[in-house]
Amino acid sequence: MFQINLFGNKLARQFVYSLMVCALFLGISTGATAQLRNTLNMPDNDDKWYHIGIVIMGTSNRFQISQHPRFLQSDSVMVTNPNNSFGFGIGGMHTFRISNRFEARVVFPQLLFVNKSINYQLKYADGGNDEKPVMDQNVESILLGVPVQLKLKSDRIGNFRVYMMGGVKYETDLSSKANSRNAENFVKLRKSDFGIEAGIGFNFYNKMFIFSPEIKISNGISNVHARDENLKFSNVIDRVQSRQIIFSIIFEG
Hints:
Helices cover 16% and strands 53% of the residues.
């Protein structure tokens, strides 16, 4: 009985200490917020009709695959699964003011360097072509894109603001192998892709620039697979669509 009460008292002390820490943190945050409201950085920036920025991006990439009816007839390819991979990119941000709440954004030029892959499990691996029972087929891409977005902004609290955005994108693959005649080991992709995007971000106003971390989902809606009946790794797949999660760091003036 004594041990139970002691355990309960220990929990009570930890609870009180936690409340004290939370109260102290809340007090510091409140004071910091009040100080920020008194010292606004770049107070006239929201009145500009246009401003420019630089975007640095890290991406998580994968394919969305739909199997072709030929897959059920295949006597070699047993399984096809997309792999997750990472990439990076850079771009120029162009922002146009519409109202106090809305802005239009265009990212151009946007260059993404990505390496997507598909995992195959083969029943009959051809050792002469360096095939293995379990193997990955990599598809390297250099994507030149033009995302167009509508940005919805919250009220500015001191030097901080939250925003949401959504829009569409057009991309062209500068390294597409869709027309390559001797790419026997490649899943061929079309050059062009259309997609939709949505995400959330945060504006931090500094004295000389706005720092904005942002995360968004970018999904292709068109089929980028250039299916080839003569290719073992291509004829079992029908549709291939791109899927990306993009984390961006934006510097705007």
